[in-house]
Amino acid sequence: MAKVELKDIARRFGGVTAIADISFEVPDGEFWVLVGPSGCGKSTILRTIAGLDVATQGQIYIGDRLMNDVPARERDVAMVFQNYALYPHMTVTENLAFGLKMRGIDDKTTASRIDTVAQSLNIAHLLDRKPRQLSGGQQQRVALGRAIARQPQVFLLDEPLSNLDAQLRDDTRAELKQLHQTVGITTIYVTHDQVEAMTLADKIVVLNQGSIQQIGTPQIIYANPANQMVATFVGNPPMNMLRATYQRQAGAPAFAVHQQRLPCPERLAAALKPEQRINLGIRPEQMQVVTAQDPWHLQAQVTLVEPLGREVLVRAEVLDGAAPSTTLSVLVPPSQTVIVGDRLYLALNLDALFVFDAVTGDRIGPAE
Q1: What's the CATH code, domain 4-233?
Q2: Pairing, β 186-191 against β 363-364
């Protein structure tokens, strides 16, 4: 096992910059997840660490060894791809053993590792089958097992669960987390699914357009997003955004949300200028449907109701006159009856309100 460190990594393809100024250090034994929308550079970073792509600039270290000029086969990393890349003519045992044989591992050690891996991944009963006789989830476990059997310094996983159905994906994700707790190998995992990132990661690296937006624990990323991109990408349902203008009339700070007004907490007012255009961010669970009308409550009309079992997701359009409508997502308990067409009065938790620059998307105001 070993730490992985990237220093000012960039990768350019002709005139196109895929990633730029990528720097982070994954400590020995930790599970880090790279997350972001398609095309943000996640897989490019992973392939650069593996040696399948060559960094245009910067340094890559695995342990204390500089890897820039080290061939991929000598980096002692194991990579699992979205497609399982199993050898179709080989049995599960032969697929698991292939990498070990290529490294000159003796038969006794190979058999021992295969047995251990097969037991831990619950594929011992599949060892004599060939890939075409396996389900997608079983094939994925074999692909993971082949990587684990090598006992590399680093695991690199590139969206390994994306081909699985929802239930199997949840089950395999839990098994993967338990497996990491057992073997403790440094792991870097790529996904566009923020739920996977939140449930698996010790630390999350949020990427967009080839650059790092924020690095932190799942709790920090969720509770204290660095900018609007992070705020709206992480969280399901995503954070709501309201176009607003900061105003201060008769000494009272407020947000003008189209034709409505919301109070502005003093902790945010200190960082704002009069008539500054901003976006207000509020998570769906931080709004409450109330029955009593209040001047500071946001009014919206229900357009869609989605029962989710333990809660109900309500989508409602802010009542804003002639201005373009803004749709909000609100989570309410199943006991609260809401139907399409209802007018809602929404009380916002002002302590959970975020402010972002309307042009740059940068966060304004103090971090919590």
Answers
A1: 3.40.50.300
A2: unpaired
